[in-house]
Amino acid sequence: MSRGVFAMLRTLLAIFIASTLMLSAVGCGPKFGPQARNGITFYCPGAGNIDFGDQGIRAGLEKAGYRGQVASLVWTVSLNPAIDQVLRFNARAGADRLAKYIRQYHDQFPEGEINVVGLSAGTGVAIWALESLPPKYKVNNVVLLSSSLSHDYDVSKALQRIEGKIYNFYSSHDAVLTVLMKPVGTIDGKPFTDGAGAVGLDVPAGAKGRIVNTAWRPEFSNLGYTGGHMDSTSPEFVTAYIAPHLIHVEHPALGDTVPA
């Protein structure tokens, strides 16, 4: 092994250890505030925390009338997306923490609705968290944005912990997934495989109607979603197309209701 490669690996290990210690010390988990009584939406950002939080999700849901809490789970160990995408075990650790927070919320607010939204590699965190939940714990709906899970990932086990559906938004114009991710591999470790955020998520046997794939359309650009990797969290797009899957949205003019 060359000195350069060894130095790089040593640096990566130092980053991981330091980040892990820091997260353990401060407790990176969400705090359940007063809004949590009205439900909670856990948000899992992408590798490298590249969208720097949940501003778009939070603003879009709030505009749509959401009264619950939006809780962001930072699971990354670097600001470099490639590092988080390659390490992968940090995403698994993040999934374990998310599962713990879901259990804690359910135990504290047994009547509260739980939703999960994931972006890019954060969709792996979301799905793996659901897979590890005991049978008594379930969430309402799950939204996957620009998912870097492989398109053929079997979500059957996760669906057992979802009362509603998985809503997967994807775009064939997403250059991160269609070009940059291919040699690195999906978040579940498959190189040169299409991500669910590029071509859609395969529906496993017996799950017809449980997965809703929505392809990017040109009119989405008017709402800030141009088909790129991160702009599906545009507040306007969240209000119009994501919020109806997470809450009951009353149309201000018609007064009708879109069921979650």
SSE blueprint:
Layout: H1 3-26, E1 40-44, H2 55-63, E2 69-72, H3 81-87, H4 89-108, E3 114-119, H5 122-131, E4 142-145, H6 156-159, E5 166-170, H7 175-184, H8 196-199, E6 211-215, H9 235-246, E7 249-250, E8 257-258
Overview of the molecule:
There is one protein chain. With 260 residues, the protein is α/β, with parallel strands linked by helices. Helix content is 38%, strand content 13%. The chain has helices spanning 3-26, 55-63, 81-87, 89-108, 122-131, 156-159, 175-184, 196-199, 235-246, and strands at 40-44, 69-72, 114-119, 142-145, 166-170, 211-215, 249-250, 257-258. The strands form two sheets. It has a six-stranded parallel beta sheet with strand order 2-1-3-4-5-6, sandwiched between helices. The longest helix is centred in the first third of the chain and has 24 residues, at 3-26. The radius of gyration is 18 Å and the shape is globular. The protein starts with a helix and ends with a strand.
